[in-house]
């Protein structure tokens, strides 16, 4: 809304400029709603008033990262000196809506209502548009429109600028066709959206709690497996197995299980255990866009070997032979919080080179099954040793020497096969359950967008057709621009 721009115009002229012609209206809405240009009912980028504050006084500051795209709210308000933010930043007031105009924040949904500001005003990133609703617009109704996927898709289609720096033009917001219901209907819609979203969020929280328990349940199963509890029935059926002469180990493993260190199960060949090359042997300047792939901590931790792929030349890879890996090698992170994440380098992938904070292990297949070794390293018994041997302040690390001396319980091959089978079945079942939870969570997000779509079409069964047309709201708003 621009009072200066509209000075001298009649109400009829302003009304004609504000309304969206019938042929340009995106879809049909209830009869007492009107289609209007957003900029004629909402102030976009309100001007900053004169502020009588000392430069050393504290004021609120909101960075782009402080706006949660998932929650649609400000998660952290900084306090900065007024003198350091009064120029060069975006000004807003309590109750204004912050809308990210830059990619990818806009697409992600970095939109929030400014609340709990010091002295009822604040400053923030220049990449925010500020939208201030009038008395004729319910703030939350407008907020939910800006949070809708449909709105963001249309905003994305008009973005301009260099790659990675594309922005939504202000003209898009000013001319956006806005469906304006009567004020009471706006409030009913906003309240219903809020109520339905609260129920969805409650359900999602239960899903998230179930997903969070996945790792705890996985650890509990691994613990039972390496105490011999998973194979108790198997033991009864195979009671004729020759027993080892040793005594029961720490009262936590069957008689036939031996306590051995990692070094003893490694393949008896050079470089069967190794860490990645030191920094001087492999530098960023050695990276290429193709060639022999490199494996980083992030790949092992995410079980994703396509993630941010880097390569070295074939010639460089030959100089890094001790650090080379091939499918079925076990990979362990030697750095992390804590270190000790492990994975098997998948079959079908090419030979690769591990980087500095990774450990590789080739096992002696006559002593241990690859998958059993992986599960043993992932078990609580082994991970406890990792935590005890880790060193460092900013980043915890384990040395290769420490790793070699860590212990696992080793049963006969026949029982290893049974343990692996039972664990694999358990984890596959758990993964299916986890996938189902993830799919349900995604459907919840889609349901929210479906609710928003219905809301802005007047399909939430909240409209009262006897209420005065929203055209009167628009006229009331435009009259103020004439004063």
Could you walk me through the main structural features you see in this protein, from its secondary elements to its overall organization?
The strands form 8 sheets. A 4-stranded antiparallel sheet has the order 2-11-8-9. A 4-stranded mixed sheet has the order 6-3-10-7. It is built from 17 helices and 24 strands. The chain has 483 residues and is α+β, with helices and mostly antiparallel strands. Helices cover 39% and strands 17% of the residues. Among the domains are: 3-180, DNA methylase specificity domains (Adenine-n6-DNA-methyltransferase TaqI, Chain A, domain 2); 258-410, DNA methylase specificity domains (Adenine-n6-DNA-methyltransferase TaqI, Chain A, domain 2), CATH 3.90.220.20. Mean pLDDT is 91; it is low at 241-251.
CATH class of the domain at 3-180: Alpha Beta
CATH architecture of the domain at 3-180: Alpha-Beta Complex
- Radius of gyration, in angstroms, nearest whole number: 31 Å
Across the major sheet, the strand order is 2-11-8-9
CATH superfamily caption of the domain at 3-180: DNA methylase specificity domains
Strand fraction: 15-25%
CATH topology descriptor of the domain at 3-180: Adenine-n6-DNA-methyltransferase TaqI, Chain A, domain 2
Average pLDDT across residues? 91
| Alpha-beta classification | alpha+beta
How much helix, percentage-wise, in residues? 25-40%
Span of the ends, CA to CA? 13 Å
Characterize the largest beta sheet: strand count, sense, and whether it forms a barrel. 4 strands, antiparallel
Number of contiguous helices: 17
Shape by Cα distribution: elongated
Say how many strands there are: 24
Give unreliable regions as ranges: 241-251
